[in-house]
Amino acid sequence: MSDTVLVDKHDTWVEITLNRPQKLNSFNDDMHVALRMALEGAIDDGARAILLTGAGRGFCAGQDLGDRDPSKMQGPPDLSATLTTFYNPLIRLIKTANLPIVCAVNGVAAGAGANIALACDIVLASDKAKFIQSFAKVGLVPDSGGTWSLTKLLGVARGKALAMTADPIDAATAEQWGLIYRCVADEQLLEEARLLTRQLSQGPTQGYANIKHAIHAATENTLDEQLELEARLQKTCGESPDYAEGVTAFLEKRSPHFTGQKT
Predict the structure, then answer these.
(1) By three-state DSSP, how is residue 166 classified?
(2) Per residue of the chain (263 residues), what is the pLDDT tens digit?
(3) Domain 5-201 adopts which CATH fold?
(4) Which of 92, 107, 174, 254 could bond to 58 as cystine, CB 3.0-4.6 Å?
């Protein structure tokens, strides 16, 4: 695998680090391929949780614009092809993975880098981190799910303002506005993110996957549709070994030992 992405495997979880610190972990084709391979490999190998973070002083500055220099190209780039080939499959993989994906935003998260972070299930950010929808500065629309995430998480007014002004917001504001889960002291970020990922990796994996599915569906479903979905998912969860273990542990007044096994 390319050294643009580092993979650290633990017993039940995997830490994946974007590793182009000299470029603020901006994406080139190699890093796109390596990240997809790392995520798919972790899922295929049975990881029960994933932590995504960045090396150096930034999380991810989005696309490496050095690869998009107009003076070095014979014509305009086909950015639709870039999204279709790389970014869109990545966002779909993160959103549909049947396990929790935690993101530790250790510094600037700009452009697609911000939106990849927001696609993760739980986002912790350093108190030194900033989120920037930088697309308007180069005449583009937020991609990698950015227009969707901004609208769903912040609403139309704030979503449009951040997209059009490209104003950075700090992690404390992002937490206050509901854009991320929590702002954490910089020196504690990785420790807390690793602890959370480890805890999730020892939980009821199928239940987490169904929580993820249900909450994503809730943004589009009517109440009746959501009630029906909850009933279907609850049936599946109720038939799982983890539910039996959870109830047994509760009755026996002990901590449960979840295996993450499917029904």
Answers:
(1) coil
(2) 689 999 999 999 999 999 999 999 999 999 999 999 999 999 999 999 999 999 999 999 999 988 777 777 777 889 999 999 999 999 999 999 999 999 999 999 999 999 999 999 999 999 999 999 999 999 999 999 999 999 999 999 999 999 999 999 999 999 999 999 999 999 999 999 999 999 999 999 999 999 999 999 999 999 999 999 999 999 999 999 999 999 999 999 999 999 998 76
(3) 2-enoyl-CoA Hydratase; Chain A, domain 1 (3.90.226)
(4) 107
